[in-house]
UniProtKB/TrEMBL annotation:
Membrane-spanning ranges: 12-31, 65-84, 134-155, 175-194, 291-315, 341-362, 374-392, 398-421
Protein name, as recorded: Alanine:cation symporter family protein
Localization in the cell: Cell inner membrane; Cell membrane
Lineage of the organism: Bacteria, Pseudomonadati, Pseudomonadota, Gammaproteobacteria, Pseudomonadales
Pfam families in the record: Na_Ala_symp
Organism this protein belongs to: Pseudomonas mangiferae
A Gene Ontology molecular function term of the record: amino acid:sodium symporter activity
Amino acid sequence: MLDALNDFLSGKLLIVLIVGLGTYFTVRSRFVQFRYFGHMFSVFKDSLRGQAGQLSSFQALMLSLAGRVGAGNIAGVGIAVTLGGPGAVFWMWVTALVGMSSSFFECTLAQLYKRADGDGLYRGGPAYYIQHGLKLKTMAIVFSVLLLVTYGFAFNGLQSFTVTHSLQNAFGFDPQQTGIVLAVLLAIVFFGGIKRIASVSDLLVPVKTLAYIGVTLYVIFNQIEHVPAMLETIIKSAFGLDPAFGGLLGSAIVMGVKRGVFANEAGLGSAPNVAAVAAVRHPASQGVVQAFSVFLDTFVICTCTALLILLSGFYTPGFEGDGIVLTQNSLAAVVGDWGRIFVSVALSLFVFTCILYNYYLGENSLQFLTRNRTVLMVYRGLVLALIVWGSVQNLSTVFAFADITMTCLAFVNLIALALLVKAGMRVLRDYDEQRRAGIATPVFDASKFADLDLDPVAWPVPQAAGTVDANAPASPLPASH
């Protein structure tokens, strides 16, 4: 029953909603992801410069990539190619293109409605823009509970199972002992708070991403003469024009869209929780950065995995096996047996940072529900216990349940995005106007949005020249703001 319900919700209804609304946001924003594609790189460069005591836009990006760039980029792509053929890759690209606009809006709104947490940092996400943008407290609570259950608990147990059994297959490590070591390492990071989580992600995400891309590019460049033909096969297969994969047209679309959605998470409501923590000058700039992360996830990393599989010679139509095995054997077919070990090590790094990301999403949801310190300590202890428990369990039922709860929270988020699109468009127009006026780094003026329920600490109203408001909260931004 769980599988049937999950197949309908996440395999059909959610895909239609995400692709449909992503297309609507793309048209409504006048193709923001294309207009600002070149600008994404300059915003990404500017995001490296943080402010004292604040999390930078770059750190927020690394934290979101910690979750986006995970097992889905290795196993997910393998599953998509196995069940949908090469054409599934094309539909992953299409999903990412429209998903970039969804990510722009949800992360811009997360920045717009973020709240200062009293410790000099920020909290935000769908629960916050639902409460303060739509004034629907109950809906916000439902979203927070769903996010806490899905990411804070269920997915962390699943990630633990994945990495401990992968290491058992590669090195013969005992899963329970590996689970205990993993829990200890995670505890060191968890109890350091969001700053330590961001710092670790800052270090590990670029390392794991660049190392993985480097190895896959080595395989691709070794067979560069075959790449154009393979790209042609991907496109032809996407429309059922390649005889070898003609019978997989329907599967190519479904698997490509489904794996694309769950790889880049655009529109699901998870990334905005991380996007809100950064100190930025304008909410739209974080939307641009997060749209760029969708591009990195799908067009760069997922494409590298797909080409690795398709160029290796190991994959053949009708291949039977899981996605990790396919990726491991594809790399080993080119570079030797150390390729299997490399994939296991890469997966371990991917999973470690994914757990950090999942944990933070759960903590952010918990902070929305209660600020009780004891409850937070209990949550951390439960997550660590689940890491050890998950290392020795079969989590297929838990995973199916988590898929359903994640799909439900995606519905809540997508409904909120559709209802708040006017507010998102106002912020985008303000950003557009400043850019057209020649302002390289637009600055948000909260006085233009006085009708919205914004946090005066997060977005203080600029004072007129020569005047001082003694009651105004201190701005977290530099004086140039």
